[in-house]
Amino acid sequence: SFSFCRYHSLHHEEDRTNFCLFMPLFDALGNTLNKRSWDEHRKNFSNGGRKKNGKAPDFVFLAHFVDLSAALHAPFLNRAIASRPYRKRAYLIPLLPVTFVVMLIMWAKASVFLVTFYTLRNRLHQTWVVPRFGFQYLLPFAAAGINKQIEDAILRADRAGVKVVGLAALNKNETLNGGGTLFVKKHPNLRVRIVHGNTLTAAVILNKIPAEVTEVFLTGATSKLGRAIALYLCKKRVTVLMLTASTERFRDIQKEAAADGRKFLVQVTGHEAAQNCKTWIMGKWITQEQQRWAPAGTHFHQFVVPPIPAAREETAPTAI
């Protein structure tokens, strides 16, 4: 967790130190690490992430790592790789054990840190990262620690005068913190606005579904995002096979639909119910065996983290 710009700026003040732009390790090995680096780093983050001129970011996007492979595509590791569409690359495989060790160290000691920033229309935007990987969000015993990291980041942003904090991916998980409502209720006097991208995600998914589709299969159907997608589609007279074991939650969503649209919401309890449906919307992780219930030519629209890999070549996965 390092303020990269401030780190290299010390090179211009004392030109025999901090030659590297964002890799202190190489300066440490070459004995050119400026002794002020860590003090400057702590000073930079003690005020909530303000820049040297006192300007706080207008917007903070609070992200997290997806998996070990995706972590190697971070911009500060290799901008050439990060600038290209993500895919697994064979030459990065030898680095996975190193990434695993770094992941364990971050799990034990790291706190939320700044990864990148940019200015758009005179507004400063920053991306902060919770030092956790996607699989860790699935571990029940890790939930409290993750929420503590998110809460600390929100309070730091609030102290700095940040206007908006956007919770990315699993940081807004409904079962983890109610889409961020946990922190708003706990700290009712927050000045910073806590938002997430569910509305935009739903819009992207709905826009990608062809107009001629008359039936879809939906997992994660009773989540906030699943609910929004189901209610919109039934209004368009599209039959939605909603995978859920909870009849109560299904009924609650069904009651929200218009009377003439409720018949288009259908509760199913197994993936085999969608064996003739060629449009699957995935809001929950599924195994390769469960994917095999999909008929040939099925298109998967998914908003799952980490993304679901394709089980068969004749299916077409799309991650949102």
Describe the 3D structure.
With 320 residues, the protein is an alpha/beta fold. The chain has 3 domains: 48 residues, no CATH class; 143 residues, no CATH class; 121 residues, NAD(P)-binding Rossmann-like Domain (Rossmann fold, 3-Layer(aba) Sandwich), CATH 3.40.50. The strands form 2 sheets. Strands 8-7-6-9-10-11 form a 6-stranded parallel beta sheet, with helices on one face. A 5-stranded mixed beta sheet has the order 2-3-1-4-5, with helices on one face. Helix 10 packs across helix 11. The radius of gyration is 22 Å and the shape is globular. The two termini are 28 Å apart. About 2% of the residues have low confidence.
